[in-house]
Amino acid sequence: MTDEHITSLRAAAHPLRLRMLSLLTGTAMSAAEVARELDTTHANASYHLRVLLDAGLIVVEGEERIRGGVAKRYRYLVGEGPAQSEADLAAEVEVIAQELVRRHREGAQAPRVIADAELWLAPETWQQVVDLLKQASRLMHEGALPPRTDGAVKANLSLAAFRMS
To answer: In this protein, which residues make up the domain named HTH arsR-type (predicted)?
Structure first.
């Protein structure tokens, strides 16, 4: 694994930055907009956006003049990440688990799907499951709208599927 991949994984393994990636999927936003949406300070949002930008997880999609200054607008371009080390995978699983608890407390509503399974499968069935989960993730990310769009629902999709040894 390259240093670039390690930096990228570590950048994503932070609860606030994970929320930022989700937020920036639906629209490009400035640090001030991200700060307001996530109820954090502008300085904190700017810092975490720089970490994500330096790790190559987000891009600057444009700039706009605001009160005599220039505000960058950031966007998350969804893609499949690199292979992970065991330590990086453990860190990412930990962050996702914390986020699931936070999102549930924030007001998870029905209808919802919760599944847990540790089973033996034929390799073809396992591959079909992985392909369907990737399709669901792509559909969710491609359909993402700007926060609080009229008529839109706030939804969560957290996936973790892996072969057991």
So the answer is: 7-94
Structural domains counted in the chain: 1
CB 11 within 8 A of CB 55: yes
- DSSP-assigned letters across all residues of 106-147: HH--SS-----------HHHHHHHHHHHHHHHHHHHHT---T
pLDDT tens, 33-75?
Answer: 999 999 999 999 999 999 999 988 899 999 988 888 899 999 9
Type of residue found at 10: R
Residue type, 4: E
Give the residue numbers spanning the domain of 53. Answer: 3-109
Q: H-helix or E-strand containing 92? A: helix 86-107
Predicted confidence (pLDDT) per residue in 72-95, tens digit: 999 987 764 545 567 767 777 887
* Beta bridge partner(s), residue 113: none
Q: How far apart are CA 18 and CA 134, in angstroms?
A: 18
